Structures are given as C-alpha cells and as structure tokens.
Amino acid sequence: MLIAEPLEIAIHELSKLPGIGRKTALRLSLFILRQSNEDVENLVKAISNLKTQLKFCNECFNLATDELCSICIDSNRDRKTICVVEDINDVIAIEKTNEFKGLYHVLGGVLSPLEGIGPNELKIKELISRIEKIYPIEIILALNPSTEGEATSLYIANILRDKNLKVTRIARGIPIGSDLEFVDEATVVRALEGRIQIK
Question: Which residue range is the domain that position 26 belongs to?
C-alpha cells in the first residue's frame, strides 16, 4: 500500500522508540494527525524541551534543569546515605515509594564486557570522588539483579573495601531478570528495608 511520504516518515521515526513497532507507529501517527494543531504543537514542544531544557546533574547524574537536580539541592535529604543505581528510571522507581530519603548516584549503566562497557564508561570515578567529598556513612547498591548488575555491585564493593563506610545492597525481594522501573512500590520498599551488608 502506498503511504503518503509525511506519514511514512512519521511511522519510521516513531518506530525507533523502544517497544514501538511499525503497526503501533502507524496508530500513533494517525492519532497525532487527528489532533488539533495546538495539541500537536504542545507535543512537539514537550519533546523538544526534553533535549533543550534537561541535562544531567553535576553531582549525581540524575536529570536536572540546572547544574544540580532537585534531590541534590534538597537540604532535607540524608547526605550520609547514597543509593547507587543503574539508570534514571531506577531513581524514579525508588522515589515513588517515598521511603528513601538519602541521595542518589546514577552510574549510567552496568559493567558489560560483551557490549564494551567497562568501569571507564560508567560514573564510578565520580562516585569515589563524591564519597571522598561528603563522607557518607552508607552506600546502598540498588542495581538490577542481573548478572551484569551483580558484577557491577561486586566491583564497586571491592573498590570501596578500604573506605570507612558501610556498603549494602538491596534485598532479594526483586526477582532476577527484572528491572527496578517495572517493580511495584511495595516490593521496592521491602528490598530497601531488607538490604544486606556486603562489607
């Protein structure tokens, strides 16, 4: 079937999104086509703002609109506890529980030699620098319970072995192979409360 070029371009671009196949991209494109000009302009502006107004926090590498994110500048947060996560999705998942009151550190991934991701590709040096700057009491390793997440947790725990702090990891309430962003709040709360000390 011959599809008008603007529609084909929209389908092609939308199908680049994760979890969006060609059929879903077609449905989304047709939905957008039926919307008012104002609604479409608002959508375009919102997408554009993601790239122009958001950046990474200089301290924790969470999303921010300024040099520091809202968590890092919050004076009510516990500055003696840093929760190390793989991705920004994990910060959002933990924050939804309203249970954790410390700071975060987003690694930007996990060790994966097969994909060429080593320690230098992650924000591990920056984590060490933060620890030496603010002297936290506890580091919580809240990485996904995958082989790569476990390897990254062990790598970081080994690096921190000589530091004078407690290193814990979240408990096994989260099933192997799942991602924090897809786990319900109650399970994340149990995992945080039942974290175990690594060293």
Answer: 5-53
| Three-class DSSP category at 102 | strand
Condensed to tens digits (0 to 9), the pLDDT of residues 89-101 reads: 999 999 999 999 9
The strands making up 102-106's β-sheet, listed across from edge to edge, are 102-106, 78-85, 138-141, 166-169, 196-197
C-alpha count within 13 angstroms, C-beta hemisphere, residue 109: 11
Global pTM?
0.79
Could you tell me if 10 and 88 lie in one domain? no
Predicted local confidence at residue 173, as pLDDT: 64
Name the token pair of 47: 């997408």
- What CATH number does residue 89 fall under? 3.40.1360.10
Radius of gyration of the chain (CA): 20
Give yes or no: residues 99 and 185 share one domain: yes
Same domain, yes or no: 101 and 143 = yes
Q: How far apart are CA 101 and CA 59, in angstroms?
A: 16
| 71 and 45 in a common domain | no
| CA pair distance 199, 192, nearest whole angstrom | 17
Map residue 178 onto helix, strand or coil. Answer: coil
On whether both 112 and 163 belong to a single domain, the answer is: yes
Tokens of 171: 């408990």
User: In this structure, what token pair is assigned to residue 88?
Assistant: 């920004």
CA distance 33 to 27: 10
Q: Which two tokens stand for residue 125?
A: 């040096």
